[in-house]
Amino acid sequence: MNEIKVALIVTDFLCAPSEISETLRVDPTRTWLKGDSIDPRTIAVRQENGWCVESSMGIDSSLNDQLHDLMGILKPKERNFEKLPEGCHIELSCTVYVVSEAPELHLDRTAVEFLKSIGAEFDLDMYCLAGD
């Protein structure tokens, strides 16, 4: 089964991640600080502070459905994104693990307009795990 994971990530800020939560008035799924371990199995560390909210839908849900799930949380807070510290990087991160045939990767106009309104970039990482 294919897996799709969708999250909105804010990075490149010097304040504590809790200040991002207070500014946006949203509880994150996870946060990290510069220097935190990325994965306990490696020596790699985070290069910047980060704040992340992930879709609560299952990994078998479409990209567009997961983005709309996030929009249900974030759209009412849309104006708060303007109050984030200067220089913050906002990104919609989509990770797709393809095991069988490629899934639909569609963003409707409402989703695109929302991402534009908060100044978010779109990052798509696709990993093809299907055998021969």
Notable traits:
alpha+beta, 132 residues, 5-stranded mixed beta sheet, 5 strands
How would you characterize the overall build of this protein?
The chain starts with a strand and ends with a strand. A five-stranded mixed beta sheet has the order 2-3-1-4-5, covered by helices on one side. The protein has helices at 17-24, 63-74, 109-117, and strands at 3-11, 30-32, 50-54, 89-98, 121-128. The protein has 132 residues and is an alpha+beta fold. The chain is globular, with a radius of gyration of 15 Å. It has one domain (3-128). Strand 4, helix 3 and strand 5 form a beta-alpha-beta unit.
What is the fold's blueprint, element by element?
Layout: E1 3-11, H1 17-24, E2 30-32, E3 50-54, H2 63-74, E4 89-98, H3 109-117, E5 121-128
Parallel strand pairs: 4-5
Antiparallel strand pairs: 1-3, 1-4, 2-3
* Stretches with pLDDT under 50, minimum 5 residues: none
How far apart are the termini? 16 Å
Largest sheet: 5 strands, mixed
β-strand number:
5
SSE order in H/E notation?
Answer: EHEEHEHE
Strand content: 25-35%
Strand order of the largest sheet: 2-3-1-4-5
Number of domains: 1
* Helicity level: 10-25%
Compute the gyration radius: what is it? 15 Å
Number of helices: 3
Mean pLDDT: 92
Helix vs. strand class: alpha+beta
